[in-house]
Amino acid sequence: NLPNPETPMFPVAQFLPNIKQAIDEFQPHCVISASKGGAYMTALWQCGLWAGPSLVINRHPTIVGIPPNMRVVICQGSNDEYYQFRREDLEALIRSGSPNRCLLYYTGNSGLLGRGYTREGDRHNMQSLIQYDCLPRLIDAVLSDESPEVQLMRSWRDMVTEERLKAEEWLRYSSS
């Protein structure tokens, strides 16, 4: 029941006690924000009300840096209609966080092939998050004690068929 934080001169701080109370009551393992909720995430970080694992879907313009020692995953598509950021700026944001604690999940367009793309990056609704159990895997990644990137890569093995794993074993291929 939070209002839209993107109205001019919106008092985000006025609503932080409500969010903090919900966090204290629920005691989540991670906090997830999407779209306009990123303004609230920024305020939680800046006020020190949340320093745990955070998953951000659609980087909000108020997120200009990642607090130290936080595990953060940021999800962004190249075709977002509302929050458009260059990939290199998103990568710089990830680098502002502590090493091996942050991950950028970015879906970009492929190169042009004829008149179109063979693969299109996500729009604002981040459709790829519901495919292949991607959202739960990103949540697992941000909750992992090791690097979110390493955890996400480990999860790929679970997506491979048993037939493929047997063929790789026969070829003496090892992913470890």
UniProtKB/TrEMBL annotation:
Organism per entry: Alexandrium catenella (Red tide dinoflagellate)
Q: Which domain of life is it from?
A: Eukaryota
- For this entry, the protein name equals Uncharacterized protein
